[in-house]
Amino acid sequence: MSSLQPLKGTHDLMFDDIRRHRLVEETAFEVASRYGFSEIATPVFEFTDVFKRTLGDTSDIVTKEMYTFETKGGDSITLRPEGTAGVARAFISGGLAQQTPLKFFYRGPMFRYERPQKGRQRQFHQIGAEILGVPTPQADVEVIALAAHVLKELKLTGNVTLELNSLGDIESRAAYRDELVKYFSARKDQLSQDSRDRLERNPLRILDSKDPGDKAAVADAPSFTDHLNELSRDFFKAVQDCLAAQDIAFKVTPALVRGLDYYGHTAFEFTTDALGAQGTVLAGGRYDGLIKQMGGPQTPGIGWAAGIERLSMLLSDLPPAKRPIAVIPIGEEEAKIALDITAKLRHAGFTVDMGYSGNMGKRMTRANKIKAVVALIIGSDEVRDGVATVRNLDTGDQVKVPFADLARHLSGHR
RNA sequence: GCGGGUGUAGCUCAGUUGGUUAGAGCAUCUGGUUGUGGUCCAGAGGGUCGCGGGUUCGAGUCCCGUCACUCGCCCCA
Fold first, then answer.
1. How far is the CA of A371 from the C1' of B43 (A)?
2. Where in the sequence is the domain holding A404, given as residue range(s)?
3. pTM of the predicted structure, to 2 decimals
4. Which of A259, A290, A314 is the last residue of a domain?
5. Which of A287, A330, A352, A397 is most deeply buried (CB count within 10 A of its CB)?
6. What CATH number has the domain bearing residue A69?
7. Which nucleotide is closest to A195, CA to C1'?
8. Judgement on whether residues A394 and A275 belong to the same structural domain of the protein
């Protein structure tokens, strides 16, 4: 069974792949900081209950996609499949109720036992943001504005659109749910097998089915918008007005629903047409009941998460990596001096690479391969004169520069 | 969990109706140039044809199984 392959649905990240990841994470965190979010890092595993109690017993994530196992101590623990539950748990166990409102940004790996495909891995990475303790639409709008800002800053290729919906409060949702079940039950024969199952488990999910038969049935289904009570309707309107006021374009999509049970009121998704079946690039919503449900004080919350792999695929060209300075000694004694120069330049803030072995030709080839800007050639003549030959690797021009003047001479390449 | 596609050199791929020593480009290494790379020229190394079984005088090629990757369903970020 053991093999030298990575496990299904996992990947090694290196070179440009990890640079893309970093770019997404760092851009997002930088923007989030401007909005007053601070970083939180919760453990990658939690007691299984943390996820079981929050995600809802009917969600596929809980029923078949969690990496759950027993520890040597006999506890059932689970590798986190998403980030919000951990943040909510930290809020409760850390006694943070006194410090609301709180704004958290997080990043890190998540785990779901799914069949991999494009934009879907078993270990994947998310960035996410949460606002805890703010019941008003301002929080919804700030969190969406942050999301839009992050996506804009990443300069994604293709079209990304914001879809928005309201899932109403508990009362509205229960009423609508009953209505939907009644409607679809009467048309059961038109529905796909999947949707017949959903009728029991999660009828709202039928609304965003891709099955053509389902779509036909959905077309005339009662609309959620018509079933929102006054409070929910006002809330939704306030969110929309405020987004419009901030020039954030959105499309109200009545079929937009959430997979996880803890969402209510605002639900939103940024989607793209560039990723095949996995078109959702960032998604979130309001979860006012979550923290109470987990055993904490009643605390409203709203947040989103985005898949770094999906965002990475939409990144246009990476900015070029920093080009190093290559130090090339010729001879043993010269290598010692070169090492000293290398160290001094590094401490002075330069990016410097000195190869480990090889004659000059090999070292030049290597300098070329690592895309060095200049090569500092240090041979016996140079050591005798106290200079380094500084060769510009793009133009081929070379000049001799006294050791003491190197930092100043190279300052443009820092 | 269900359905489709693909597995040949480090990478991208070609390989005729089954036929004898399995090819190319890129990459790598060596030499031309032992203190000058990126260009050029010459040469070299590198393959259990994913794995197992079957059909056949003969299988990279056909059949069955299996594993991996991939796309879609489902689910979701």
1. 28
2. 325-413
3. 0.91
4. A314
5. A287
6. 3.30.930.10
7. B74
8. no
